[in-house]
Amino acid sequence: MDNLDYGIIGNCRSAALISKTGGIEWCCLPEFDSSSVFAKLLDEEIGGSFEILVDDSYSITQRYKKNTALLITKFSDGENTFEICDFMPRYHKEIGGHHSPPEIIRYVKYISGKPKFRILYNPKLEYALGETNSYIKHNFVASLTQAEKFDTIFLYTSFNKNAVMEGREIELDDDGYFLLGYNEKIFLPSTKKIYLEMERTKVYWLNWSNKTPAYRKYNAEIRRSAITLKLLSYDKTGAVLAAPTTSLPETIGEVRNWDYRFCWIRDASMVVKVISELGHKNVARRYLQFIIDLVPDKDEKLQIMYGINKEKKLTEETLAHLSGYKGSKPVRVGNAAYAQKQNDIYGILMDVIYEQLMKFSTDIENGEELWTITKGIVWIVSKHWKEADKGIWEFRTEDRHFTFSKVLCWVALDRAIKVARIFKKTHKLEKWTKLEQEIKADIHDNAWNPEVNAFVQSYGSSHLDASVLLMQSYGFIPAKDPKFVGTVKAIERELSNDGLLYRYKNEDDFGLPSSSFTICTFWFINSLFKIGEEEKAMAHFDKLLSYSNHLGLFSEDIDFKTKRLLGNFPQAYSHLALIECAINFSKKNSEETILESLR
Questions:
Q1: Which end of the chain has less neighbouring CB within 10 Å, N or C?
Q2: Assigned CATH topology for domain 6-209
Q3: 54-68, 366-380, 501-515 — which one is most confidently predicted on average?
Q4: How many CB atoms lie within 10 A of CB 15?
Q5: What's the CATH code, domain 211-598?
Q6: What is residue 594's predicted lDDT score, i.e. its pLDDT?
Q7: How far apart are CA 250 and CA 260, in angstroms?
């Protein structure tokens, strides 16, 4: 498999990646950040998988059931046909909350002829660190390991368990199922019960998707991206993950491999902003509560990222026994970046608080806590905005005065002032406005480089950086301001490579990046659109959409040469930027249609 040709299934508790040929090649249970059950994605030899094997006469196609997270893989040789519908159960319980157990269901649907297949069921618990042994019991297959620590998984099936475990050929003449559960079942499943689970889960997703408004253009892409973002939200705490995977490399064979199964305040805030614009209020509300729960002390500094269960310490370890995706070592779990200082997160958090107050001001319950957090953020920014930091791209070398970080310090003050007005706390305005203007002037004085005719990556440098494109969308500068137009043009000239963008071109801790950071290209397209180059922007957008995988999913990076997807997958950041672009294009089209009808 040369690309990240996987589909994602999940239930807001965990997720699994399923290959183009129907193999489960990545899954952690019981939760997103648990150790893996299947990790063929990170080691083809020992990682473990759950595959459906057919002979070469079968062609295999894959699609999502429309507007749902149910993934259908179809196997057909023309005469003999069957489908696997993969999903993780999720639906409303009769007495509040959701039913979302840590399990995967594979519903096998008979369609025609006498289709034959074999099963390769090879779980490798605890990141395949020790041996996993499987035992055929009366009602299920139990797999367990006790090498590193004790762990078990249970497989229930309507098929002959011995035939399944021995990889013998199974001839299909009726529907059947596999249920892989982290817990032993109290009530035994049956094909009929499993079918009901599938229908209930389908209805849950159809209802959820139905809340997403219809747009004139790119409707299918917006919906698929919205569902993907929902799949990356963690029900229990409201956290939003950057991605459900670890150590998928930004460049094959290199060492930029990180664990993304955490909640970055920056990414998650942007996700919430976009998701709430799509009308999904609960995701936004619960994420806000997640943040409020993380800021208990008034002088406690916000970390850039947290564990999905609000863990503050995310120690980074290396799994040396795994060979890595396509041989790209090391495989890491945990992420040392949690200890980094990044001054932009305060502005991002203030922006999301302001957005929520604007959208839900009548039904925000925790106004007093939000006002306390707002005051705390202004206090922290006032004390620290003049300091250097690691920046949005988490440089692991020396701190610098990054333009993006400074702009976001300005955003923190700008939004705090607006929040003060909403809460009618006018006694703060004079002092806060003075600081807001001071930061703004400082950025214009130090981040603008007249020789480059652009705002640059950091104070005193001549390097360009795609993150400064966000100055406009955060309201720091109008789109048609000559300084912003100049910046967009300079970035196009220096950082664009066949329409795909470098984050930056100056060498970082690991040398010059050889892949494009997908979100940067979306930011660039948005900026082109805003400065009036709309046709060019839409052409770039359509081209970028063509680089998604067969299911419309994006990872973090795209290789400049081959256009293959790289980096952790699917990536929340990429999908939220896709939605933002698509909505902007759609709104523009709607406005033009209205104007046409008025003429």
A1: C
A2: Beta-galactosidase; Chain A, domain 5 (2.70.98)
A3: 54-68
A4: 26
A5: 1.50.10.10
A6: 43
A7: 12
